[in-house]
Amino acid sequence: MLAVSDDVPLLDDLMPWSVAPLRLGRDWVVAPDERTLRARWDLLVGSEGADRERLFGPSRARTPRSAVAALPGRTAGTGPFAQERGTCPDPVRIQHGPFDEQWLIPDQRLIDAARPELWRVADERQLFVVEQGYAGVPRARRKGEGWGEAGPALTVSAVLPDGRSPTGRPGRIRPLHRRPDGLEPNLAPGLLALLRRTYGSDVTPFDVLAWIVAAARPGSGGCTVPLTADPQLWFTGVELGRRMRAVMLRGAHGGEKPRLPGGRRPYVRAALPARPRELRYAAEEETLHVGEGGRISPVPRQAWEFRVGGVRMIELWFQRRTEPAEPGTLRAVGPASWPQEWTSDLLELITVLALLAELGADQAELAIGPPLTREHLAAAGVLPVPHAARRPASVFDHHEEGPGGQFALI
After folding, report:
1. Tally of domains within the chain
2. pTM of the full structure
């Protein structure tokens, strides 16, 4: 069982480059399906003057008159949005909070703080670690116990995360690689060499990520990651972290889609209504009742009870798709009836949460043995981390379009 002390390394020690969460500024730029975003864009572009201003939702950072650079790798316009007449840029899949995947319009004119440094390194080989934000420190877990209401300390995503937490302070986003194409791991300089010497075998950045996923714990000064000096315990933790990471990635990077063991997979037992308004769980039947008459089962109790920051993930997922929006706003533009793809997403979410809940109990059993402390890291020259390792790498290998179509100077 993990023990945590003041000399336990922080995630910030091991993965030093981090980025603040995206600050969208307007909720209508994100939606559970692409069609909704294109409909919102068309309504906005088809409006004029004061109507466009109202629908846009100006903020201090963005108004329809703002001229902003294009996001790296994207082809959205760069002139003031007040002059926009074109079609909607292709929406991109993002991780919206810990376990919800939605779509985003990748136009920096619509986003208060899009964090371009993340977009520069987001490719098919990148992984993002998202440290959850907590208003307080959850109590220590007992042996054999799952995460409880706190949830996991971090998540891993193959798609760009917005970094938002259901409650508490914002967390941090840490790419695994500092450069595109899987180059330059975002690890403290010298850490890989130290771990290779300690365990007498090769250690890759993906191994370190797997250990971090398995060992991370929330703490008062940030996420802590106990390290072990025992090679066998290291291999045990890495294997557990790989399993947890695979579930969180949902088949990305050539992996398999998560499935419950023994052929127990959730099915739609009764068709979901066109516009469900309530969600109810029957524990004795392992059934999720969706609106009037809709039924999904089996839904393991641990999936229904899975929480992050005290918030049930399934309830939050459903709420985001069904809560009423203010009439006349872009947020109110959505599908007329429940799309089939939402049902598929819900079935996948149930599976992911059920599997992670089981692995969370295994995580609580993970032993550390003789630890590698921050003092050990300092003696090996790994700490303190050089200032340059906490800043983005220089990744410019092509021009980026600046405001008004001008190329940004590099």
Report:
1. 2
2. 0.93
